[in-house]
Amino acid sequence: MTIKNFSIEYDSINSQNTFTNGDTINGRIIIEVSTQTSIQSLIFIGKGSAKVGWHEYYGMYNHCYYWSDEKYYEIKQRILRAGTECINKGRHVFPFSFNIPNRKMPSSFKSPTGRIVHKLKAELKQSMKLTKKAKAHFTFISKADMNIPGLMEPQHGCTDKKLKVFGSGTIAMKIYTKKMGYQQGEALQVKVEIHNKSSRSLKPKFVLYEKQSFFAQGHRKLCTQDILKERLETIEPDQKEIVKKVIPIPRNLPSSILNSAIIKLEYRLKIFLDVKYVLNPEVKLPIVVLPAFEGPTGRQPPRHAAYGFEEFGYSNQQNWGNDAQNLDLPPPYEAHKCKMPSTFDSSTGRIVHELTAELKQLKKRTKTTNSHFTFVSKADMDIHGLTDTQHDHTETKCKGIKSGTIGMDVYTQKMGYQPGEAIHLKVEINNQTSRELKPRFVLYEDQSFYAKEMRVRKNKILKERLESVAATGNETTYENVITLPRNLAPSILSSAIIRLEYSLKVVLALRCAKDVEVILPIVVLPALEIPQGN
Prior knowledge:
Layout: E1 3-10, E2 18-19, E3 24-33, E4 37-39, E5 41-58, E6 62-80, E7 85-87, E8 90-99, E9 109-110, E10 114-125, E11 132-137, E12 139-140, E13 155-163, E14 169-177, E15 181-183, E16 187-198, E17 203-216, E18 219-231, E19 239-248, E20 263-274, E21 282-290, E22 344-345, E23 350-351, E24 354-359, E25 367-372, E26 390-398, E27 404-412, E28 416-417, E29 422-432, E30 438-450, E31 454-465, E32 474-483, E33 498-509, E34 516-524
Parallel strand pairs: 2-12, 15-21, 28-34
Antiparallel strand pairs: 1-3, 3-8, 4-7, 5-6, 5-10, 9-10, 10-11, 13-14, 14-16, 16-19, 17-18, 17-20, 20-21, 22-23, 24-25, 26-27, 27-29, 29-32, 30-31, 30-33, 33-34
């Protein structure tokens, strides 16, 4: 055997052997050969990707396998240039230095249903031999995203319940936390106000649990697991209690994953009142776990008097009215800052924003009036690769009478465009066959609707044909400008049941053969948000 050892290793930069955005990984590729050996090329690859897959069974004999994958980066470095080189007998070390991209990417994650992997690979190519591969995984911890809406703001939730069977009266509960984002090992302080105006005794319970969500082909798999549980003292009938609890976040708890399209790792704090023979009233608050090395320093949560939350050393107790409606007052409007989709209407689904007024009178039907308004969501400039250059390559081998290879590279300046803006398209075609090629491009939209089954509707927006590419050995470059219609609706990517996406497809039409095509995603931004300085 000529190659005795082919491996890749890297140096750690801290005691936990973890890396984050922008870090540099230094390492080496080791080749040990028993005799003088010829090598065509040696390539280093740094790659970050995610994959999910699971089976769902329908009855005894039918089942489906749902899967999806996502790539965050793939960076290649040629350690030895293409061409034959000889290395002598012995051990050879080829050093490399790899910079992890400084962009938003999810942390390393592993479960039976899906995983997020960051790894270093090496490929050794020799003439007339199979490519040899070596790899080493590294633990990537994403920096804390401090731009999550409401991350450092107080949280509030409330619920009330009227007992009619197996008891009478009203149960009301209010929950307060100082913020939503916590570091690993940090203390989560909770304040609970319980007003038991019923004939039943209550047992308050706390549960901190995790939600693992996996998305593939319009389907979702959800896994939950309890992390911490605790019971409090029983609250007797006609009593009011204010409970303050400190819940430490475990230091080994993985940080939240919110920036992957196919894997989400979320946490919830659930407080519920255990009442026998009655559906338990409960309140759930989202918790974002931040990595310990990227703490939310220097940012303190503001005081919100409307939330009724004070420092844990004292309390500013609000008056409890006799009417249960007083417990349902919503938090201030500014607390609802979140990403929302724009107004949308189609025959299959719609997104509606409306103003509603209700007039209630004693012993009469409630009168309702509403007015719809057009809502255009602000451009989400955090979409991965929005302003980066796009490039894709495809290559096809034609067999039969007219054999040869067809290669095509497609470039655009970026992925995000406003209505009316021009897309600068560059297409490089290498035709090494005896066939004539007819290039064309299509800009189309995908409307996806998710319910029990996924439904997709495609609409073509623009079509254009280019000049034919002559046969055998011709390399042709096309540059074209495509102007987006000004009335084009902005992309909808922030809804769980409706998605409006755009794609640019470049096709090489072949007679009596499968067409060669490249598809690039296009994000249409609303005209009111111009992406400046990105």
